[in-house]
Amino acid sequence: MKSFLLRCVFIFAMLQRSVRQTAASPDTELNCCEGDILLLLDSSGSVTTSEFSRFLTFVAKLLHPFTLGRGHVRVALLLVGTTPHLEFNLDVHSNQESLLRALQSVHQQQGDTNTKAAIELAKRLLLEADGDVPKVLLWLTDGVQPGDVEKAMSELKARGVYVLIVYTIHGNHRVLQRVATPPLESHLYSVDMESIDIITEDLREAIIKIIRAERLSVVRLTSHSAVLQWRPVLAADSGHYELSYKAVDDLRSEKTRVLPSSSSQAELTQLQPDTTYTASLRPESNQRLHSTLTVKFTTLPDVLSPAEVTLSDPGPRQVRVSWGPLQPTRVQRYTLEYGAIPSGRVHTVDVSNQKSSVLLSNLEPGTQYLITVSALHLDGKERAMSVRACTQEEARPALTDLRLTLTDRQEGNEVQASWQTNTEGLKGYWVSWERKGSQNSQSERSLSTAYLPPSPPSVRLAHLAPNSRVCVSPVYSSGRGDGICCTAKTNSG
Q1: What are 79's strand-pairing partners?
Q2: In this structure, are strands 319-324 and 276-285 parallel, antiparallel, or unpaired?
Q3: Phi then psi for 447, rounded to 5 degrees?
Q4: What are the DSSP calls for 211-228, one per residue?
Q5: What is each CA distance from 389 to 4, 311, 326, 336, 478, in whole angstroms?
Q6: pLDDT tens-digit profile of 302-346?
Q7: Looking at 81-159, which runs of residues are DSSP E strands?
Q8: From the centroid of its chain, how far is CA 272?
Q9: Which residues, at least 6 apart from 394, have a Cβ–Cβ distance to it below 8 Å?
Q10: How many other CB atoms are there within 10 angstroms of residue 116's CB atom?
Q11: pTM of the model
């Protein structure tokens, strides 16, 4: 237990010194790269405590300049022992402080050197990781007993993973040179652990060559424009970019722009629709030679507004009409024409070329309209598109109260019916009740109905049958609303 604590204290002290040295150096974070790096660190008993701690310190210095996280460089640490131990996976650390704290807490596993099992796990982690980015396996080991790893490493390399190795001077060079990805002069390093720092720059440069994200991409494309994007490779005020582009079928159309070193995006405008272009970006710097980036793209077919018309915010008396694409630089004005089908009056609304929607109001409820949006373009061309819209049925509020009051107490067959309802849009009322039969056939009864005007909200009903049902329903222009029925407690006469 005492020896284990001493090892932990020693490793922590080494990494603390590495952190202090790193913090004292200027901020040189690299934003050049995108890729996944899996550190395969020998943590078995064949590696001394001193070697293990120096490997961790070396890794901290090696990775310090990189920008970490998704879209940049992701780092995972897998320890080799009797059974492989995943210390942290690729998406765990997105900054250097977090990574350094994690390296400080790593404990040596001891046990056997089961590298083959660790490589199988590493293969699964790297090949199942999302993102089509370069992948690097950096194996740090004493190399004395590498084990039966050649087949597993060959499968990794066949799947596009770069295998780089750092091992002590006592390692099995013959096996390791067959495992590393060529060229061996930059991907395989045999070191004296006391002077491992001398390979830091060379190994970092080898990793950068693998994961350098020197790509020119098209991130937005229309019929007349394209936005190009790239990862900056020039330091501030260290040079400039020269961007050239041309139509493939018209070499005379080539144009060139000079962009500052801080640029990472450029928009190409006034392109021809449905045309293939090539673009090249050449970083110019007096500090180092950079590769020229190229991309080929085809603009979209020409789209004249309106290409689509949509409807929203429907109501009994309104509907919003929207259209696109909005092309203020190509359209003089928009015009909307709408009328009820089949023969309603046609209304016209002129709209600014800066707007792409209009709310039509004062429409008739439950009515179908034909709506036409037309655009007058600057070149004199006119394009139109029509849709059909149906307004919603107007709300039909229900009757809210119905009262029956006996008015002829002697005969007991006459009542006053009164009620309440929403009067907005009200046309009248339907009233129904049961009348009693003639004196010779008291058992007979008949149903009577009447249509009443909106006012007054009451009616006197006579000659009701015993226990007659009285029903009142409001009537609106869009139809009949829900009514109320009550039983009139009349005399049997």
Answers
A1: 41, 85
A2: unpaired
A3: -90, 130
A4: HB---EEEEEE-SS-EEE
A5: 79, 7, 22, 13, 18
A6: 878 898 999 999 988 899 999 998 888 889 999 999 999 988 899
A7: 85-88, 135-141
A8: 30
A9: 316, 317, 365, 366, 425, 476, 477, 478
A10: 17
A11: 0.50
